[in-house]
Amino acid sequence: MNLNGWLPVCAAPVEAAGLEDLGVLVAGVGKVAFAVGLTRRLLQQPPHGVLLFGVAGAYPARHRPGTSLGVGDLCVVASDRLADEGVVTTTGFTDLAAMGLGESGPFAMAVAESAWLAARLRVPLVVGATVSTCSGTEMASATIAARAVAEVESMEGAAAAFVCARAGVPLVQLRAISNLTGDRDRGGWDLRGAVAKVQAAVRLLLA
Predict the structure, then answer these.
(1) Contacts of residue 15, Cβ cutoff 8 Å, sequence gap at least 6
(2) Is the pLDDT assigned to residue 2 strictly greater than 90?
(3) Region 6-206: CATH code
(4) How far is 5 from 23, CA to CA, in rounded Å?
(5) Nearest to 54 by CA among 159, 133, 144
(6) For a tag on the chain, would you pick the N or C end, based on fewer CB atoms within 10 A?
(7) Cβ(201)–Cβ(174) under 8 Å?
(8) Is 136 helix (H, G, I), strand (E, B) or coil?
(9) Which DSSP string corresponds to 56-124?
(10) Distance, C-alpha 107 to centroid of its chain
(11) What backbone torsions phi and psi does residue 29 show, to the nearest 5 degrees?
(12) Is 90 exceeded by the pLDDT of residue 171?
């Protein structure tokens, strides 16, 4: 198996810098910008598949017991969901699906390709949560981690899955951990290192 003919896509320019020769699409940060950018590209010329790559936050073990992801680790996201679209009331959170207003996920990535990718890179398959507001407090991190039963958090994963499913284009999602969520002073931030890690993996996969 290989990713020949697959389109590499990321959200932010910093994630693509230095990979211009690979034809990376910088679709935009956040659910809306990313969905629009990716949709426009797929309508022009559908690729064999989409390789979404970039950085992500990982929920720490104090918020997601059993997780072992640390800053600088790579992972393949096997499924993702819209973790904060809905309504919060005094009785808790209700997502779009429960409200009868749309889909919230989980949205599965391409199963065989994701398994191959994880084995090729020797990294874990994880569950992702897609948010509009990143979890920069202990309460937010613990809440979203429990709600989505996820290991990692991004701002685009579920949007990419939503678009690709409707376009009939397979999707895989590769992430490098740039920080732990929650209290930002405890996040161990290394954005530059995470970008370098995921870019090296993309070059290996598309060589």
Answers:
(1) 26, 53, 54, 55, 195, 198, 199
(2) no
(3) 3.40.50.1580
(4) 11
(5) 159
(6) C
(7) yes
(8) coil
(9) EEE--TTTSTT----TT-EEEEEEEEE-S-EEEETTEEEETTTTTSS----EE--HHHHHHHHHHHT--
(10) 11
(11) -90, 135
(12) yes
| Domain boundary assignment for the chain | 6-206
Residue 207's pLDDT is 81
Inform me whether the pLDDT recorded for 1 exceeds 90: no
- The tokens of 92 are what? 């808790």
Q: How far is CA 22 from the centre of its chain?
A: 20
First to last CA, the chain: 13
Is the pTM of the predicted complex or chain greater than 0.90? yes
* Token pair recorded at residue 51: 């390789």
Six-digit token string for 32: 């809306």
Cα 52–chain centre separation: 7
